[in-house]
Amino acid sequence: MPVLTTDAESETGIPKSLSNEPPSETMEEIEHTCPQPRLTLTAPAPFADESSCQCQAPHERLTIAQARLGTPVDRPVRVYADGIFDLFHSGHARALMQAKTLFPNSYLLVGVCSDDLTHKFKGFTVMNEAERYEALRHCRYVDEVIRDAPWTLTPEFLEKHKIDFVAHDDIPYSSAGSDDVYKHIKEAGMFVPTQRTEGISTSDIITRIVRDYDVYARRNLQRGYTAKELNVSFINEKKYRFQNQVDKMKEKVKNVEERSKEFVNRVEEKSHDLIQKWEEKSREFIGNFLELFGPDGAWKQMFQERSSRMLQALSPKQSPVSSPTRSRSPSRSPSPTFSWLPIKTSPPSSPKAASASISSMSEGDEDEK
After folding, report:
1. What's the Cα-to-Cα distance from 261 to each of 57, 251, 257, 272, 275, rounded to whole Å?
2. Is the predicted pLDDT of residue 218 greater than 80, yes or no?
């Protein structure tokens, strides 16, 4: 396998080229004992000072082509990524995911700069260094965390941690008096670029908080933080608390409006149901009335039938022309026969004549008795 020659170093001391010639001194082959990538995620990633690479085998730097082929098979490709990682977010995680998946068998070391270096070269952080270390330890792509990482990578640091490649986005990072702190890494062929995630960064998150400062100050006052903890003046505290009370009243009014709308909607639905039922019942009542009292209704037929029966009951039946004679009892005298022929009588000419005729009719009745 190609090894590094002793004179193939750049001005910065980083090995620059590979030689196909074996070293002049014969060396006994030593098996690699470098740490392997994490296979389980039941525990956080270790710190470098707790599990540093104690492998005694010579570390031979790989080319990108060799690393992508998965060689050598006896050790993983050691990839290094560094940063501040303040307010750890999805952009950080995606960058580390890219660094982890650059090669088939990668061991990802992540360097986190201390508070002193960060405040000196970049600015104040929201999270302190211990919080940032712990955030990185619990990222699934990280195999090892290096605390107090250097701002600019030195040959001694790369050699100590047996780093094969350095992963970072390709945008020149100007800092500490340099146009690009990764320039010497790129010249040595050890740089592998990753892609930034647009729309998310620590600066963007801080900008949102500063822009909506009043909202978050009121939010934390509601959650029990004191004005002193929030660095809020007495006047602003009273203003925020008053605004919170106003918002609560608005929320109550809004809830009442929503409930009243729901009640009105329910009443409308019920009224529609009642009207629909009333219409159905009305149609049913009208139909039944027409069936009973209409021109061809059952009541008319029943009335006609009853009328005919009453007429038949009231009108006498005509006697037959010839009827058989009944045998008379000998003890009884024969009843006189009466003639049913109409007798024409002239009206009386005067009241006296009328009274005389009535008296004669009454005398005749008495004689018959």
Report:
1. 78, 15, 6, 16, 21
2. yes
Strands 106-112 and 191-194: unpaired
Distance separating alpha carbons of residues 236 and 216, to the nearest angstrom: 13
120-134, 205-219, 348-362: least confidently modelled range: 348-362
Q: Which helix (H) or strand (E) holds 87?
A: none
Q: Which residues contact 185 (CB under 8 A, 6 or more apart)?
A: 14, 153, 166, 191
The residue ranking higher by pLDDT, 319 or 85, is 85
pTM above 0.70, yes or no: no
Q: Specify the amino acid at residue 284.
A: E
Tokens of 312: 């038949």
Give the Cα separation of 187 and 184 in Å (integer).
Answer: 5
pLDDT value of position 282: 86
Packing angle between helix 234-293 and helix 213-222, nearest 10 degrees? 80
Q: How many helices (H) and strands (E) does the chain have?
A: 11, 5
Task: Enumerate the H helices of 212-350 as residue ranges.
Answer: 213-222, 234-293, 298-314
Q: What does the alpha-carbon distance between residue 70 and residue 102 come to, in Å, rounded to a whole number?
A: 11
Report the pLDDT value the prediction gives residue 339, as an integer from 0 to 100. Answer: 46
Is pLDDT above 50 for 341? no
Report the greatest alpha carbon distance in the chain. Answer: 185
Band the pLDDT of 54: cuts 50, 70, 90.
low
Closest by Cα among 85, 87, 105 to 95 = 85
Instruction: Output phi, psi for 191, to 5 deg.
Output: -95, 130
Q: Give which of 37, 48, 166, 45 is closest to 104, Cα–Cα.
A: 37
